[in-house]
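New to this. Please check this fold:
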Amino acid sequence: MSSWKPRYFDIGVNFSDSMFQGRYNGSASAKHAPDVEQVIARARLFNVDRMLITASSIEESRAHLQLAASHAPDLASTVGVHPCTVAQEFYGGTHNELPLPNASEKLRELRDIALDGHLRGLVKAFGEIGLDYDRLHYSSKAQQTEMFTRQLEVYASLKHLHLPLFLHMRAACDDFVAIVRPFIEDGSIAVGNGVVHSFTGSAAELDQILALGFSVGVNGCSLKTQDNIDVAKLIPADKLMIETDAPWCEIRKSHAGHPLLTPYPNLYYPPVATSAEAAARPQSPDRPTKKQALQNAIKLDAFLPFPSIKKENFEKHKAQAQLKLENSPEATSLVIGEFAYPLIKSRNEPVFVGQVAEIMAKLHGLEDESDVRDFVDTIYTNSCRLFKM
């Protein structure tokens, strides 16, 4: 019997998002306590042993170093300002055409964070930088193109660090290529030293990205429509990386790639050995009847062995699970099954990155188990090699 198991590198996780602090939809009140540690533990349970925390602002670039340090070398971070954030970061809002007087100082600060983080072994990429013309209400084209160029100039000054680029390109391929190409031609960007993540472009745009030498990152947003998956299947295995972009970009039932998923356990999510880890806990003397047990059943996710609940039901679920646990001496695991930490509906997590691998393998027409293993291993190796992790 083979001892092979999948290994995953989620190249894009937004752990600074407020959802991982229990706050949703801009609310100041939390539905649950911060749970990044539980989310990381769950991901590791299913072989996500590398994660890259993506930064969208200078503040995030600095703050992520602490989380990366607490989980090094398995977690690392990026340094950069997202195209949707450049207006606020460097212009003080979308209404200003000229950068703030301290914009150059902010760029130097970004450079210093990259230098310090790299020296400490915590920063493994420069980004997330690029262009996003789908969301011009956050930052204008002029603001995005100017600050993409200026951040690439900062990157060029850090050439000696050999950091890869973590790039964002949405509905802006021609301008993206026009800005990036001169930096490749003058050697500031080494050929192939970067990834365009969360790719949702056309086949022609994919060809342009590959022609620049970049790798391509795929997540749930990349597998949304039939056009998306028709393009995704064209990504060469040696240029492919996978991600969740958690807590965003989940694979929804409405997505074209969703029918390709299969439930746990499978090749992508091997069985997790349970144990009598809860054997020593006190038991309630009152055993529930079969009818009560059915009424108190905790619903699991359709694909993974974890409870799946609405955010507003967190405390209710917690109380229900605790009560049921006290009356369940036969329970063998607290890490999977009814008593595991719950998934929050509509919040993506790194543990789901294996689903991206499954869909991509099937889009590539892989059916033989050994071919699937080689494919999953190749994706993992691609990511480890680029980010030097």
